[in-house]
């Protein structure tokens, strides 16, 4: 009887711990088998950076992703990373920080854009070694926007221009799109109502060189396993 009560308490404790992980990090270990060599990083809703967003907003807090990315690099059991995106964008500096961290990983990485990879989601989606986008998914490419009080002086515009250049450089360095084409899409008029920019759908993102391939989860997992296998083969040759 005591043993049954102890087992029940342990199950309740595990269940409570799992719920807490989902609430706090938006991450669950259920889909991953204990011996899985692949980690899944989901970027859903709005990327929350230095400013806390209202509670009703669905957000991905970048300070929660940073320790996960470092753990992926440090954990020898994890051999690859899948980044799943369905994001409207968010904090520019937080998004770029995540993009740089993912791009600097020594392990194979693959991204999948599901639904949307808009705004600062574009650099994140191209930061991996290989990228996929589903046929119905979209990516909105537009200039950087500032919210709140803006001081109307030349220095403000220079700051925005430099930040814009950082995004352009990162995207062109980690994808096959030409800078001229990216700028053209970014400053296009008429595609977005009363706004500047372009809404790029699935196949067009591949055609422009922004994303590598149209596909979903199965394609991403297959490609990641291929990259993991190639890395192992190259390491064996070196040894």
From TrEMBL:
Biased composition (Basic and acidic residues): 1-13
Keywords assigned: Hydrolase, Protease
GO MF, one annotated term: peptidase activity
Superkingdom field: Bacteria
Region feature (Disordered): 1-20
Pfam families found in the cross-reference section: CLP_protease
SUPFAM superfamilies, A to Z: ClpP/crotonase (SSF52096)
Record GO biological process: proteolysis
Keyword Hydrolase found: yes
Protein name as it appears in the record: ATP-dependent Clp protease proteolytic subunit ClpP
């Amino acid at each position: 009887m005591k043993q049954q009560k102890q087992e029940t308490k342990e199950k309740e404790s595990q269940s409570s711990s799992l719920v807490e992980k989902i609430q706090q990090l938006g991450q669950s270990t259920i889909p991953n088998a204990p011996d899985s060599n692949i980690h899944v990083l989901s970027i859903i809703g709005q990327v929350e950076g230095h400013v806390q967003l209202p509670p009703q907003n669905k957000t991905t807090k970048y300070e929660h992703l940073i320790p996960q990315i470092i753990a992926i690099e440090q954990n020898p059991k994890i051999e690859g990373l899948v980044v799943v995106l369905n994001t409207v964008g968010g904090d520019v500096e937080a998004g770029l920080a995540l993009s740089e961290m993912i791009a600097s990983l020594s392990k194979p990485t693959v991204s999948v854009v599901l639904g949307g990879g808009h705004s600062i989601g574009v650099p994140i989606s191209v930061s991996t070694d290989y990228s996929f986008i589903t046929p119905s998914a979209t990516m909105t490419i537009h200039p950087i926007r500032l919210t709140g009080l803006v001081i109307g002086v030349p220095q403000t515009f220079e700051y925005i221009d430099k930040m814009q250049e950082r995004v352009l450089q990162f995207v062109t360095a980690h994808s096959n799109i030409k800078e001229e084409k990216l700028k053209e899409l970014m400053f296009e008029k008429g595609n977005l109502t009363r706004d500047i920019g372009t809404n790029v759908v699935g196949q067009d993102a591949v055609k422009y060189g922004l994303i590598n391939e149209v596909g979903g989860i199965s394609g991403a997992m297959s490609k990641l396993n291929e990259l993991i296998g190639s890395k192992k083969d190259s390491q064996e040759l070196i040894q």
